[in-house]
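User: Hi! I'm working on a homework problem where we have to compare a predicted structure to a textbook description. Could you give me the structure for the chain below?
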Amino acid sequence: MHKELKSMAVYCGHQMGTDPQFARDAARVGELLARNKIRMVFGGGNVGLMGVTATAALENGGHVVGVSTHDVVAKQEPAHEEIEVELVSGVNERKQKMYNLSDGFIILPGGIGTLNEFTDIMTMQQIGETKKPIFFLNTAKFWENFSHMFLDMQHNGFIESTDDYTIHVASTPDELIKQILEY
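Assistant: Happy to help. Predicted structure tokens:
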């Protein structure tokens, strides 16, 4: 029996991306988290998909927790003005704090930071440090190439088994939330 997922870290871009569907799906994820009383933990920014997701959660009565670093807020991602953002000293502390506050992870489209955040969780799963699940939202097939690369790693002998990972992939926000609620 799995643990009920009441607090989810959302990893996504601090940019909007080129496809308008990214923002629509991010807003829907925030709305659905709020409506299902699932706390959203995120990078604290008020920009890009992060800001869209958090704002939608707040507009729907959700509980949102931001975690960011002093440097990130000062240089590139202003803190979301409608929530309290906990500032930590560095990226590793930020990732650890978000991990500690979350029962699982939602991965929306994003860039290098998003990739870094979820591959850290996958590494922890691989070595047995965590069983917390990862839920990818494959908006506009954004994560298709990563999925193929993951299978290529297994095929080429760099990953013994995909059984070490607790990964779920959804094509729509509604499907994603359904997977989380049924976990």
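For your comparison, note the following. The two ends are 9 Å apart (CA to CA). The chain has seven helices and seven strands. Good luck with the assignment!
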